[in-house]
Write a structure and sequence with these properties.
30 helices, elongated, 7-stranded mixed sheet, alpha/beta, 676 residues
Length: 676
């Protein structure tokens, strides 16, 4: 007979580690009905009839965040066969508060006291038999990270279910509803204190414990002056391992993220070539060939192209989070973020936005208040994600070849943060006047994370990205393909008569028509020509598509003659490094290689010379970069915004704010720049 049990516990108690150890690979992620918060459930690896549900972590059944509401509702209303409450043995007094509330519901409960290795290292002793007798439930010591005690824990769960064993009715339970919440909380803690005195023996003189390793580390990592420089160094290493082309300042040495991305691109490129040859040999029509190769395969390739970077980024973030360091970051940053209306927890999603907006937006669901979640979701779109970098690099190379390129890039990153602060302040003043962000965070003991746990976290995030963002990217890519390859003449037969194909050139397509209609809106910003406007639109598939689109639209500057001349000075090794097979120049490969390996890397300062007619000044070029930095992010990120904001109305409002902000900032840059 199928049985469902639930795992509950405080954040950082090791609950998810217990879940991963019990379910192994037999787990999946879905959505709670009616909300966007993930639920994780899986089969017990030793019994396929036993389903284990991992409830979001909470400190009490008086919830604040959407995740905590889920936990409270499930425990109070669902009445599962058994609740396993995972307690941190090193912070037993605090963890017992939630345990008391769970047992008060009279749901069959088993307490799993985790991190017993750290308890033993402290020299503390817990009398489990006495604790079990006092509470009337099974109390089992475990070390989830080392897979110790889990079999004993599950034996206790089976016995509890079989015997329908309920917690002992304590006198303190009868106070609920008779006294106010503050008095009840005081009484609960008074009872917990009496339990600690009788069931736990602590080391030290008169209960004063000697300074722990975590305490010593916190003197530096949470120090008023040292915390931020150390954090900056840690973040530099994180992003260097994910995005650096010259890892550890070694020229040509790719970071793990870049190396994996290159491998995926190579494999996918080979598969695309195979499909292309097959379609050609099968005599597929030109539009069908283009749909499959340029539409479907390019859309799927865009999805796969993100995966290595997201995987490496999340593995590293999971390592830092499991170690206990990210909690310190949130604590340190709260002093800064509170000044513009957010809590320190918002910093972590925004930081992820420097890598990719999709996981950053998904991470906002852990924030305590609805206000923080909505504002942070909006601000994530302003972050300079990795996909925006090729736009900046190309424009800096083309328009600022004789200037300080590094200073221009620094300005864009500083602009992102500055605009985020201003927008947050404005929204707080207008929409959330008087509301203050709650900030409650635990600073857990520093621990060396288990690689298996880190891997599971990273894998789940990548899988979630494919499932939740993949369909949006694919559909949007095909939509843009249709708009950029067809026009009215495609359906009247005129294209076939004139060109022998139903497809149109991009500069005569539906997309170009839209661009020409909208372009005058951007004249005050300095880039009011239709081709830069079309580039902005295709960037909503993926921001790096702006570079590809501009290369196609300015095809007169990327002619076969120009490409042959550009690559003529390179030897076979250089050509092979860029991507030419066997280091031999190929006209068929030249455009794609030039776009992806040269333009996106800022390798040609003389590129797209005609673009200077459409974007005539440096301030206009800077305004164009700023607009792409701040405007609506890619379709995948918009899909993630919809899930987190829970309605298309809120999503449309957020996108509207992003577009308006981008336009105003671009306009100001162009106007102010024209004065100098």
């Amino acid at each position: 007979m199928p049985i469902t049990i639930a795992l509950a516990g405080n954040p950082n108690s090791g609950k998810t580690t217990v879940f991963n150890a019990l379910t192994g690979s037999r787990q999946h992620v879905g959505n709670w009905p009616g909300v966007t918060v993930d639920k994780k459930e899986g089969q017990y690896r030793k019994d396929k009839n036993l389903t284990i549900l991992d409830l979001p972590g909470t400190y009490s059944l008086s919830p604040y965040s959407a995740e905590e509401i889920i936990t409270r509702t499930y425990i109070v209303e669902e009445k599962s066969a058994c609740i396993i409450d995972v307690l941190d043995g090193t912070s037993l007094e605090r963890n017992l508060y939630l345990a008391l509330q769970i047992m008060e519901t009279q749901v069959p409960t088993v307490l799993a006291v985790n991190m017993m290795d750290e308890v033993a290292a402290r020299g503390d002793v817990i009398d489990f038999a006495r604790l079990e007798a006092e509470l009337g439930v099974a109390v089992v010591p475990i070390e989830a990270r080392n897979n110790k005690g889990l079999d004993v824990l599950m034996e206790a769960v089976y016995r509890t279910i079989e015997q329908k064993r309920k917690p002992k009715h304590l006198e303190i339970y009868s106070l609920a509803g008779k006294v106010d919440e503050d008095t009840l909380a005081d009484r609960r803690y008074a009872y917990i204190q009496s339990l600690m005195e009788t069931c736990v023996k602590k080391t030290g003189v008169q209960g004063v414990r000697s300074e722990s390793v975590s305490d010593k580390l916190d003197k530096v990592l949470t120090h008023r002056f040292f915390a931020l420089p150390v954090f900056a160094l840690v973040m530099y290493m994180l992003f260097a391992m994910t995005f650096s082309e010259n890892f550890l300042f070694i020229p040509g040495l790719p970071s793990p993220g870049i190396a994996l991305a290159a491998l995926v691109e190579t494999v996918w490129g080979g598969l695309t070539d195979v499909v292309s040859v097959f379609l050609e040999n099968a005599g597929a029509s030109d539009w069908a060939y283009s749909l499959v190769v340029d539409g479907v395969l390019e859309g799927i390739g865009a999805i796969f192209g993100f995966l290595p970077l997201i995987l490496v980024l999340y593995l590293l973030m999971s390592f830092l989070e499991d170690s206990g360091y990210m909690a310190r970051v949130a604590f340190v940053m709260d002093r800064i973020f509170r000044r513009f209306g957010l809590s320190g927890r918002s910093f972590i999603p925004l930081l992820m936005g420097f890598g990719c907006s999709v996981p950053a937006i998904m991470a906002t669901r852990t924030l305590d208040s609805e206000k923080d979640r909505r504002i942070t979701t909006l601000l994530c779109g302003f972050m300079p994600c990795g996909a925006k970098l090729p736009i900046f690099i190309m424009f800096v190379s083309v328009f600022f070849a004789e200037g300080n390129k590094t200073l221009v890039l620094f300005f864009l990153y500083a602009l992102s943060l500055s605009v985020s602060i201003v927008v947050s302040l404005i929204i707080n003043r207008i929409a959330y006047r008087g509301q203050v962000s709650n900030f409650l965070i635990e600073l857990p003991q520093y621990r060396l994370p288990k690689l298996r746990s880190v891997w599971i976290h990273g894998y789940e995030k990548v899988k979630g990205f494919v499932q939740k963002a993949g369909t949006v990217i694919l559909a949007a890519t095909i939509l843009i393909w249709v708009l950029s390859n067809f026009n009215v003449q495609s359906f009247t037969g005129q294209n076939r008569l004139e060109r022998g194909t139903v497809l149109s050139e991009m500069d005569n397509s539906f997309l170009a028509s839209v661009g020409k209609t909208v372009a005058p809106v951007f004249k005050p910003t300095g880039f009011g020509a239709w081709r830069p406007t079309v580039g902005i639109a295709t960037g909503w598939i993926a921001k790096e598509m702006v570079v590809v689109t501009l290369a196609q639209l300015y095809s007169e500057d990327v002619s076969e003659a120009y490409l042959e001349q550009y690559f003529a000075s390179m030897d076979a090794d250089a050509l092979a490094e860029l991507g030419f097979p066997d280091g031999i120049y190929s006209p068929d490969e030249a455009f794609d290689i030039y776009t992806e390996a040269v333009l996106m890397e800022g390798g040609d300062e003389h590129a797209l010379s005609t673009i200077h007619a459409d974007i005539p000044t440096k301030q206009a070029a800077l305004a164009y970069m700023a607009f792409n930095l701040l405007c609506m992010p890619c379709f995948a990120a918009v899909g993630a915004m919809k899930r987190e904001l829970k309605s298309w109305r809120r999503t449309a409002s957020a996108v509207g704010i992003q577009m308006a902000t981008a336009y105003i900032v671009a306009l100001l840059i162009n106007l102010v720049g024209s004065l100098f």
